[in-house]
Amino acid sequence: MREDASREAAIYNLFDRPGDQHHEDLEDELRGILQEKGLREADPYAEMLGRAQVAEIEGEASFEEVVREASERLSRALPADADHLTDTFLEETQLGVTPVSHGAALPHVRLDGVDIPHLLLVRSRSGLEIEDVKEPESTAYGQEEDTGEEQRDGSRVHAIFFLVSPEANPRQHLRMLARLADHVQDDEFLEDWLAAEGEHELREVMLRDERIVALHVERGRDTARLVDRPIGELDLPPEVIPTLIRRGEDVEVPTADTVLREGDCVTLFGTPAGIRTVRNRYRA
């Protein structure tokens, strides 16, 4: 209980940086979200990550350049043009509403006409600067951060998560945002993020959760027995459900009749106990 409270305080601290202009509506909403104890079962968090676009930044780039490129990519799937998205993301960042902490930034907006949340994951191994944004001074456990040069440079980020959600569902938007922020707070996040090879592993870093597991269907592994079997015949705990399948570059929501193929990646969502059973059964 104490650890949960400290972690929630740390997540809230991402949105409440000293010296920034306060966004009172956001803060009030976030307090309510934290009291809800995380995502609801109907929140399409795993599906959002499964569909997420992924971009790699090679070499040096400014934050504005990254925002423009991200907005261009997102605009292809959204009812908004790239210029509008760019202006909105940059304005929110200048107002101090973009959380930045532990080497990650979370630009986020809500838009009319959007029916489901969209996410773009951006990685920069060399890191980039976001001007006039400082990292919180406390950790998830209320201790002071290392005061070394690298820690003082809290605005240099290696991960940027661009979240766009329906205007009509602000609380779900903030639940998603708080969950992303929770991942960033993990002590191993940045190391795992920088070490990940390719788009699939980057998504997996964000999907590591006690309620979510991703199974790679491959011969020579414990998942080999899933090859050529329909989803409805899988030996899964009743409280665990398949939420999506990534097949090459395609992502689909499975039905009971969907037949698994070698190379598929199946994302499962369920209770912590059910997910532990699946992890042990398939050594995931």
List keywords for this structure.
single chain; 284 residues; alpha/beta; Mannitol-specific EII, Chain A; Alpha-Beta Plaits; 4-stranded antiparallel beta sheet; 10 strands; disordered N terminus
Report on this structure.
- By secondary structure, the chain is of the alpha/beta class.
- It folds into 2 domains: 2-197, Mannitol-specific EII, Chain A (3-Layer(aba) Sandwich); 210-282, 2-Layer Sandwich (Alpha-Beta Plaits), CATH 3.30.70.
- Helices cover 37% and strands 20% of the residues.
- It contains 10 helices and 10 strands.
- Strands 1, 2, 3, 4, 5 and 6 form a 6-stranded mixed beta sheet that branches. The protein has a 4-stranded antiparallel beta sheet with strand order 7-10-8-9, with helices on both faces.
- A hairpin with a 2-residue loop joins strand 8 (240-247) and strand 9.
- The longest helix has 16 residues, at 170-185.
Helix-strand blueprint:
Blueprint: H1 2-14, H2 24-35, H3 45-51, E1 53-57, H4 63-75, H5 82-94, E2 100-101, E3 104-105, E4 108-111, E5 118-129, H6 149-152, E6 156-166, H7 170-185, H8 189-195, H9 198-207, E7 212-216, E8 240-247, E9 250-252, E10 265-270, H10 272-282
Parallel strand pairs: 1-5, 3-6, 4-6
Antiparallel strand pairs: 2-3, 5-6, 7-10, 8-9, 8-10
Helix pairs in contact: 1-7, 2-7, 4-5
